[in-house]
């Protein structure tokens, strides 16, 4: 399981646990802009790279200008966003991108597929990650690597997502790291 889980860090306790593992990549969620420098410094000290979820940084706008600032200032491994303009900006700056989509019904699925084809991210994070059928459809329809995330609490669910074609699974459930 370990190689397919991408730890999603929400709290300082999550961060503390992560630094005691052998994971080398994570996703930063729910971060206050005032804490970002110290968190990134700590991760760097431990040889851990981070994808920063732009939409969830508190204290700044969630737009392409914030994306450019974050990339230039903190040099993350990549950017996560639900916004196409943010993904396009990150791609123009040659950084890895994770386009996060919420699939709640067939209309959301069709709209998401069109947006994925348009912005061509490196990865698509499909939420909820327990939606295995959607992970498979998005992967097949867009030829983009899929990350499954959301509501994943059991090893079985991680395996189901991987079996459905997900490249990775994001989870903040520390028991699965």
TrEMBL record:
One Pfam match: G3P_antiterm
Keywords per UniProt: Glycerol metabolism, RNA-binding, Transcription, Transcription regulation
Domain of life: Bacteria
InterPro entries in alphabetical order: Aldolase_TIM, GlpP
GO biological process, one term: positive regulation of DNA-templated transcription
Keyword Transcription regulation attached: yes
Gene Ontology terms, MF aspect: RNA binding; transcription antitermination factor activity, RNA binding
Entry function: Regulates expression of the glpD operon. In the presence of glycerol 3-phosphate (G3P) causes antitermination of transcription of glpD at the inverted repeat of the leader region to enhance its transcription. Binds and stabilizes glpD leader mRNA.
Name of the protein: Glycerol uptake operon antiterminator regulatory protein
Source organism per UniProt: Staphylococcus petrasii
Gene symbol of the encoding locus: glpP
């Amino acid at each position: 399981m370990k190689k397919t889980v991408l730890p999603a860090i929400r709290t300082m306790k999550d961060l503390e646990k992560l630094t005691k593992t052998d994971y080398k990549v994570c996703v930063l969620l729910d971060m206050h802009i005032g804490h970002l420098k110290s968190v990134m410094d700590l991760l760097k000290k431990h040889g851990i790279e981070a994808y920063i979820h732009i939409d969830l940084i508190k204290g700044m706008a969630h737009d392409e200008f914030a994306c450019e600032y974050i990339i230039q200032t903190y040099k993350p491994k990549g950017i996560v966003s639900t916004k196409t303009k943010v993904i396009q900006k990150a791609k123009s700056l040659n950084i890895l991108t994770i386009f996060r989509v919420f699939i709640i019904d067939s209309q959301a699925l069709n709209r998401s597929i069109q947006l994925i084809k348009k912005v061509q991210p490196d990865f698509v994070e499909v939420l909820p990650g327990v939606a295995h059928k959607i992970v498979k459809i998005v992967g097949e329809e867009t030829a983009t690597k899929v990350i499954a995330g959301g509501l994943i609490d059991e090893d079985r669910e991680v395996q189901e997502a991987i079996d459905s074609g997900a490249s990775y699974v994001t989870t903040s459930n520390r028991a699965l790291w």
